[in-house]
Amino acid sequence: MASTAFFIATLLTLCISYPATSQKIASPPSFAPAPAPGPHFVNLADLLSVAGPFHTFLNYLNQTQVIKTFQNQANDTDQGITIFVPKDSAFSAIKKPAFANLTQDQLKSLLLLHAIPKYYSLSEFKNLSSSGPVNTFAGGPYALNLTDASGLIRIGSDWANTKITSSVYSTYPVAVYEVDKVLLPKAIFSVEPPMAPAPAPTPDESPVAADAPTGAKGVAGPKGSDSKKSDSGSSMVVVGVMSYLAVVASVAML
Ligand SMILES: *[C@@H]1O[C@H](CO)[C@@H](O)[C@H](O)[C@H]1NC(C)=O
Ligand SMILES: *[C@@H]1O[C@H](CO)[C@@H](O)[C@H](O)[C@H]1NC(C)=O
Ligand SMILES: *[C@@H]1O[C@H](CO)[C@@H](O)[C@H](O)[C@H]1NC(C)=O
Ligand SMILES: *[C@@H]1O[C@H](CO)[C@@H](O)[C@H](O)[C@H]1NC(C)=O
Ligand SMILES: *[C@@H]1O[C@H](CO)[C@@H](O)[C@H](O)[C@H]1NC(C)=O
Predict the structure, then answer these.
(1) Residue 62, ligand 1, Cβ within 6 A
(2) Does Thylakoid appear among the keywords (predicted)?
(3) Whose Cα sits closest to atom 1 in ligand 1?
(4) How are strands ordered across the β-sheet holding 160-171?
(5) How many CB atoms within 10 Å of residue 128?
């Protein structure tokens, strides 16, 4: 009899104390810092090495350390970053000396010109196109003309007029858009750089060709996985709710 009473008492204690203690442990770490989980960290070098092919651009970023500037800005969740990444075929379309002759500072400026120190989702380009030339990470004379014609987003930089052909990644604070030409500012190239003779078909040309028909409609279908794409923070909210549910479930199971 006494042992049964003890058993029940123990059970009751467990029932009462367990949820209380596990709540205490589970709740504060996940909910105390107000707005759910922070934005997902994006490693730009990793992203650019698997998407694309963007090896030429990535190699230049690495060689000049501009990758650190970009990553630092990507980590800065106040403003974020928007990067226009030319495909390897865009670089091979221009005669090699054009880039080989650049000083390290010119090369840095050229790379910095391919980014805006602020996150822009595709839908925000409409506003940008009406606001005149947009300043880039390169500052000073390095601005870009952005126009949005029903979703076809064109980027003008003196000698080059390119367009966004694909959204590689777009979740605040990081946007990476593929472009089909290297931006060529007059501040670096006093004359138009000569194009390579024949756009020799390379293995990476086939996805380009596949892009072409949809390219007319502006941003082609997703090249990367769909889960990587999001114009807003909505996926973040879902993650927040999911982790909340997971915590509730684990508490309930106890
Ligand atoms: C990046 O550059 C460093 C030298 O600055 C080099 O050691 C490293 O191998 C490079 N990494 C890649 C992925 O190219
Ligand atoms: C960016 O943030 C990551 C993760 O917090 C960190 O490992 C990395 O060193 C940071 N990089 C820069 C350039 O700030
Ligand atoms: C590159 O430099 C070489 C030698 O300095 C010069 O002859 C050539 O014209 C330059 N090419 C370009 C595209 O500027
Ligand atoms: C576009 O600009 C208008 C007025 O300047 C502003 O109210 C609106 O929020 C902006 N839209 C986007 C998507 O930034
Ligand atoms: C932007 O467009 C204006 C007007 O067409 C032009 O004068 C200017 O040179 C362009 N700037 C760039 C960087 O392409």
Answers:
(1) yes
(2) no
(3) 62
(4) 115-116, 81-86, 174-179, 160-171, 152-157, 143-149, 134-135
(5) 20
Neighbours of 103 (CB within 10 A): 9
- Residue 16 Cα to ligand 2 middle (Å): 43
Residue in 191, 196, 223, 190 with CA at minimum distance from that of residue 207:
223
**55-69, 113-127, 211-225: least confident range:** 211-225
Mean pLDDT of the chain: 74
**For a pLDDT cut of 90, what percent of the chain falls above it?**
44
Q: Give the start-to-end residue ranges of the domains of the chain.
A: 2-36+236-253, 44-232
How many CA atoms lie less than 13 Å away from 204 in the CB half-sphere?
14
Which atom of ligand 4 has the smallest separation from the CA of 121?
13
* 123 Cα–ligand 2 center, Å: 28
Q: Provide the pairing of β-strand 143-149 with 134-135.
A: antiparallel
- Does 97 sit in the ligand 3 pocket, CB within 6 Å? yes
> 22 in ligand 5 pocket by Cβ < 6 Å?
no
CA 100 to centroid of ligand 3, rounded, Å: 9
Q: Is the dihedral of CA 14, 20, 24, 25 positive or negative?
A: positive
Alpha-carbon separation of residue 185 from 96, 100, 122, 212 (angstroms): 17, 16, 23, 25
Among the atoms of ligand 2, which is closest to the Cα of residue 41?
4
Residue 202 has what pLDDT?
55
Tell me if 195 CB under 6 Å of ligand 3: no
44-232: CATH topology is FAS1 domain (2.30.180)
